[in-house]
Predict the structure of Peptidase A1 domain-containing protein.
Amino acid sequence: MHARSPPPPVVLGTSVVAVAAAAPPIAAMGTRSVALVLLAAVLLQALLPASAAEGLVRIALKKRPIDENSRVAARLSGEEGARRLGLRGANSLGGGGGEGDIVALKNYMNAQYFGEIGVGTPPQKFTVIFDTGSSNLWVPSAKCYFSIACFFHSRYKSGQSSTYQKNGKPAAIQYGTGSIAGFFSEDSVTVGDLVVKDQEFIEATKEPGLTFMVAKFDGILGLGFQEISVGDAVPVWYKMVEQGLVSEPVFSFWFNRHSDEGEGGEIVFGGMDPSHYKGNHTYVPVSQKGYWQFEMGDVLIGGKTTGFCASGCSAIADSGTSLLAGPTAIITEINEKIGATGVVSQECKTVVSQYGQQILDLLLAETQPSKICSQVGLCTFDGKHGVSAGIKSVVDDEAGESNGLQSGPMCNACEMAVVWMQNQLAQNKTQDLILNYINQLCDKLPSPMGESSVDCGSLASMPEISFTIGGKKFALKPEEYILKVGEGAAAQCISGFTAMDIPPPRGPLWILGDVFMGAYHTVFDYGKMRVGFAKSA
């Protein structure tokens, strides 16, 4: 007799179920036997987890509402962060810092979306923020003895893990609203059904201040690039790809904005779930590794251009930022249109009263806008744009203050006034109307790193805010960019926009946080170095 070759595998969906080689040939089995084999294969396929069948790994995200305690903590720690970083006036960030500067501005206090991971063998569970705006993994350490915050959270115990490897290299991360310090260790990290081996992470032994004491999460799992990783540690995502744990070098975020609390969405490693989005994604290339950074076009308020990013701005997709941060000039215009109450800026009004007419005259004379503030004496000019002496270093800023000089805020206010006036002139407004309008905008300047309140009953009259990405306009409706705090008569509404200025060459920069990613399903394609957006389902 000839040797029988084994029958081919039965292919069902994306999984392959092999039929045993020792099984009798199909002809000898009869119809009933064939049916039983096929039924068994179908049942086996049905019993497989959906993620295994699809080649995807799903992490459920929990959502919690923003509460007043977190808002207060965010405000206090944000103001402290601004003082510590030397951020003055419109919250400018000097260009001399490293790539970690934006990490140093991060405010996790209003974060709403968390997921669970395990560290060690057996896994010790931690609730973390999956943060595309940073690149390290850190969790509190059992060796954290002197920070009260550690005692409010799960702590990693290396002695209870059979896969722990000592490293000991010191580490520290400074955020805008807090800091952590500790040392590196290595262990297995469980993410969903995946086990990432030999992962370098930080055991936090110091979590000073208010920020992490009231935080609802234990740690951070960074999904940014290694270029901004403290200690040059290899990020968890890199290890997933290197160890062949995902079918594709792609991960995606879906935030369930229809849920007030509880199931908040999913992060999918290895691809994306078609039920999470509508239509096709618009992709843009990563323009600079470090953050998931890309180029963005004009920003529109109610369909009308603001002009600020018409020639291009940079943006980053940041799941670890709850709000949507952008240049103060545009954020102030948005706040004015939605009726948000900000903080009065005396510097802004001073610029308008003393230099407003001169700035208008220079614009009408077609002076290069980037040179105007240096011509009126409020900024210096570096060949491309106005530069305030106050943003060169914290030492310079403090020296300026001691001499009674306020060049930083005045320069920022002047440059904002130029942008606003350009926009109004393009709409053929009269000079008197323009100066009055600029004064109104001064009243709407937001607090540095802070929030602005709006009337909850006015959402219907608020405009759409649109961002141009990949040549397509991505609009946010009022119900998508206004965050509600509390319920019933006690409910308050806050603007989802916050101000942050980063000067050229790295800026102007937008940080598209959860406010934007909640409305648009976001794909992070590591293989093709691109970011994609489609309307969330």
